[in-house]
Write a structure and sequence with these properties.
Helix content: 40-55%
Structural class: alpha/beta
Largest sheet: 4 strands, parallel
Number of strands: 4
Number of helices: 8
Order of helices and strands: EHEHHHHEEHHH
Radius of gyration: 17 Å
Length: 182
Amino acid sequence: MLKLGLTGGIASGKSVVGEIFVKLGAHLIQADAVAHSLMQPGRAVYEEVVRHFGSEILSPDGSINRPRLAEAAFGTPGGAPPRIKELNEIVHPAVIDHENKWMQEISRSDPNAIAIVEAALILESGTASRFDHLIVVTCQPEQRVQRFARRLGISEDAARAEVARRMAAQIPDEEKSKLPTS
């Protein structure tokens, strides 16, 4: 089985590229979807995130309010310092374990498959060695801002600030695309 890591910065087009591969017959798992699933009430990751970040990140129904968690994790201008490393230390091991089990299952059921893990932080998390090759998706900075604004239904100015805040926790695209990927 061929194991591919599909990575790139926020709103770079990773999901679009992943969908193209799926249409060509590849299997795809998205780290963000796995993380969202693992952060549902009653799951161990949920409990640990709430323990570390407090009940103020919760919605009235008890689910994690993702914008509040993002604010706590990435910090606020002139406010709380970033705690993204702390969040990643809780979430990444569980997500990576889930992805590894998924790849093992794909390998058992379809030994000639192409299994793709879409994740923004493959290089940052030090897990690139799990893959035979990496695909790095990049785009122009303004495209990223426009995509993010459309995705969240926010202004381009708000999107620009949020993209900059989140990209500060990622290796720049220029560096990602220069790193050895196999």
